[in-house]
Design goal:
The chain is globular, with a radius of gyration of 22 Å. The longest helix has 28 residues, at 5-32. The protein has helices at residues 5-32, 36-46, 51-72, 74-83, 104-109, 142-158, 178-187, 199-211, 221-234, 252-262, 373-380, 413-426; strands at residues 123-128, 136-141, 167-171, 189-193, 216-219, 242-245, 266-272, 276-281, 287-289, 294-299, 312-318, 329-337, 351-356, 363-364, 370-371, 386-395, 398-405, 430-435, 450-452. Helix content is 36%, strand content 23%. It contains twelve helices and 19 strands. The protein is of the alpha/beta class.
């Protein structure tokens, strides 16, 4: 009987995967208006198209995007007119240089009336600051969410996961909405907090993985690193099947520790919370650009393309317009384009060498909790009074939060922030605030939004 268990489990999982793919998830797409599975099935085939066919499809999608936004979105209509450009002048990505690069500040100025459009679906506002410390709001609908979730699911498949296989995910969205709870249940997601990374909570994460025999671990690189570090200290050495990272820089020492402890490669993914999946690693370790989702440019500070192997500012054009189109959108990260044209994996998506996201320290509390950058962005991005912020740990028991405000601050503003931070895991820190006209730059000229001056993380 014991020998049959793995076979039975494998059969059950294959049946569950088939039911999810062919019946349950397509039905959910109809109910929620996402069409995620239809898009995923398309991408599973299209990823192996010849690169010429992929780039031709990319150009056609770009043409459609430009026509739609010119017609529907006042911000882009004025942008094209000011540049003296007609929609038909943009035929392929090489023509995008005719348009200016768009920043968060430019889009926020007329949000939402000037920068959004009606899609016929119910829309909702999503807040994001990623690891940049600068709050930004985008309008989204279910179809757009299904579009980028399909590309994310594709990236998970590259890591070796099959739909329905149980996994543990660390994250910041602890208040699980109905659709998220349904998704977690169907897909086998065990969702754990990335706010709390002290030893007791790390022990709870490992216990959850052990109790449910979970072989897939996903989340922010910082959280994965501390889980692996704690697992090593505890002698926990069960190999995993996949590890997937997103949201922050996957530093070499993070990758080395995680892969050493869990005995499997880390698959890094790269996207932005504005609703774009940009790139992900395949089984050969190469970053493939999601070329059917976005056009990605790597530009120097003068706005010109950098050479392969050189670091450039990442500028993204999302090919699906959605309620809030993003054309030549500067997301604030750095990356390196690749000179390599093909990958042994056989996928036709173009390659990039690496991602050079902003450096971020970890704040360590006196009780031993580790606060990664997304601890702060996951809380502070919901305060509309904040334009930008910077967190500095000045002493082991104290942090200073510099705030560049936008508009009037509500009554009890600082008290509300303290309460939110305390509730999520910073309860033993003294928190001071400083209102500034702008976030100061260090001598390197590169923004850092979480800084540990005690160097004890």
């Amino acid at each position: 009987m014991t020998n049959q268990t793995p076979v039975n489990n494998s059969y059950f999982m294959s049946l569950k995967t088939a039911l999810l793919r062919q019946l349950i998830l397509p039905l959910g797409d109809r109910i929620f208006g996402q069409r995620m599975m239809a898009r995923l099935i398309f991408l599973e085939k299209a990823q192996y198209w010849p690169q010429e066919k992929i780039l031709a499809a990319q150009s056609k999608a770009l043409q459609d995007l430009i026509h739609i936004t010119y017609q529907d979105v006042p911000f882009y209509h004025k942008l094209l007119e000011k540049a003296g450009i007609k929609p038909e002048d943009i035929q392929s990505p090489v023509d995008l240089h005719k348009l200016p690069v768009v920043t968060k500040d430019m889009l926020r100025e007329g949000y939402p009336e000037q920068s959004t459009r009606s899609t016929g679906q119910k829309t909702y506002q999503a807040s994001t600051s990623g690891s940049t410390g600068k709050n930004f709001y985008v309008m989204e609908d279910a179809f757009t969410a299904g579009w980028y979730r399909a590309s994310f699911m594709l990236s998970l498949e590259w890591a070796g996961w099959r739909i329905g296989e149980p996994h543990l995910q660390t994250g910041m969205t602890l208040d699980r909405s109905l659709d998220r709870r349904i998704k977690d249940w169907l897909l086998g997601c065990h969702y754990m907090s990335a706010y709390e990374l002290d030893d007791p909570h790390l022990e709870a994460i490992l216990a959850e993985m052990e109790r449910n025999q979970l072989k897939h671990l996903w989340g922010y690189p910082g959280s994965l690193f501390y889980i692996a570090k704690f697992a090593r200290e505890q002698g926990w050495n069960r190999p995993l099947k996949s590890i997937v990272a997103w949201g922050d820089s996957l530093y070499p020492h993070y990758r080395q520790e995680i892969e050493s402890v869990f005995q499997t490669p880390v698959f890094d993914t790269y996207g932005c919370a504005e609703g774009v999946q940009i790139a992900a690693q395949c089984e050969h370790g190469h970053y493939h650009l999601h070329a059917l989702d976005a056009v990605v440019e790597f530009l120097n500070d003068d706005g010109h393309p950098v050479s392969p192997g050189d670091v450039g500012n990442i500028v993204v054009t999302r090919l699906h317009p959605g309620p809030m189109p993003l054309i030549r959108y500067a997301i604030g990260d750095l990356g390196v384009p690749s000179s390599q044209k093909t990958c042994p994996c056989g996928r036709g998506f173009p390659l990039m060498d690496s991602i050079r996201g902003r450096d971020a320290d970890v704040i360590t509390t006196p009780s031993g909790n580790r606060l990664i950058v997304h601890f702060f962005t996951g809380i502070l991005e919901h305060f509309h009074e904040i334009d930008s912020f910077q967190v500095v740990q000045t002493m082991p028991q104290a942090i200073l939060i510099r705030i560049q405000p936008q508009g009037e601050m509500s009554e009890g503003f600082f008290t509300k922030i303290r309460s939110a931070l305390f509730e999520k895991g910073a309860v033993d820190l003294n928190i001071d605030f400083e209102i500034v006209d702008e976030i100061p730059l260090p001598p390197t000229g590169k923004h850092r939004f979480v800084i540990n001056q005690t160097k004890n993380s």
